[in-house]
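User: Need the bound-state model for flavin-adenine dinucleotide:
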Amino acid sequence: MIGAGIVGAACALALRDEGLDVALVDAASPGSGVTAAGMGHLVALDESEDELDLCLLSLRMWRQFCARHPGVGDPSPCGTLWVAENEHQLQEAHLRAQRLSARGYGADAVGGDQLRHLEPALRRGLCGGVRVSGDSVVYPPAVADFLARQLVAKGGELHAGQRVISIGQGSVTLANGTLLAAGRIVLAAGVQAAALMPEIPVFGRKGHLAITDRYPNTLNHQVVSMNYGQPAPGEDALSVAANVQPRATGQWLVGSCRQDRQESLEVDPAVLAQVLRSAIALLPRLANMHVVRAWTGMRPATPDGRPLIGPHPARKDVWLACGHEGLGVTTSFGTAALLAAQLTGRAAPLDAAPYLPSRFTSMREMQHVL
Ligand SMILES: Cc1cc2nc3c(=O)[nH]c(=O)nc-3n(C[C@H](O)[C@H](O)[C@H](O)COP(=O)(O)OP(=O)(O)OC[C@H]3O[C@@H](n4cnc5c(N)ncnc54)[C@H](O)[C@@H]3O)c2cc1C
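Assistant: Bound-state model below.
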């Protein structure tokens, strides 16, 4: 398994639990990639039925994980409050409430007054929204680290601080020259997957985040604008939507935005200002809070917004688990369950077709090259 982010670590442990011998290799340490840069919102997104299927499977598995390992990753069952700023968004919010409720996932449409009652920090005059009570928040790097340690406790291997520089048939080569043999190789290198296999259509989608000083008991839910969603791939334009998370420490974690074709991880003050302004537009008291740190992260995005889970269509015994964009923490456990079923030939817990790497011609065409 190449990559010990939340996705690779979850997959490695699931495969070990299937009785396979697993070696997990990471260029740095478990959970230190994009997994450490994101928000850790465990959220049911419903832009498509496939997305919702993978989210709901994963969220069930997150609940089981949290029940089995209390306290790991500081889980907080805060729920999500999706906020509509206009009538169109309110209609969308009501549809979301219906779609989630129809799948047995608690979601209630709320009016403007109720919104302020649930979240007094919201400004007056908002149209309403939807409260999704099953959503929650974790600290993802701590979970990835825990999963990697569980792997080792169960007899798997962890090779931290070891960069894979090439993938051959039946082995990978590390930067120090060591050859690691493997019957099957899973690439879970997140946004760096294409550095090892250029045909993989995963690219970086930059996001800015900021965190405030501690203001305990000032925010109850993860508050997200109904404007939130994925832009079309390759969009140069900046897409900003308020997304504010209450941390267990009393801090507010403030995002977010999406920007493609960005090489640098530097914080762009103008972009950060737009992110903060959009959050202040919903939660005015943020304007008087002290921001202690800001950073960015590159979401591992794909052209159709879905992750790549399954066999490489052209490279024998190479499997992929990457490209989870802004949902990789949420969908890590479902990804692991799907990959484990595919690798062992068991019935998949959901339809694998939308996630198969072979849906991309760039991947299929490799058959002619290799
Ligand atoms: C601003 C922002 C906000 C986000 N908010 C959320 C959210 O609220 N909820 C949610 O579900 N998701 C969120 N995400 C998305 C989520 O963080 C990612 O989808 C997820 O972390 C991807 O995990 P990963 O394991 O695929 O990648 P990573 O965490 O990047 O892990 C990949 C690992 O592979 C290793 N690696 C790479 N190349 C090599 C190599 N050649 N050899 C060895 N090791 C290698 C790296 O060191 C790294 O540890 C957010 C992301 C961003 C940027």
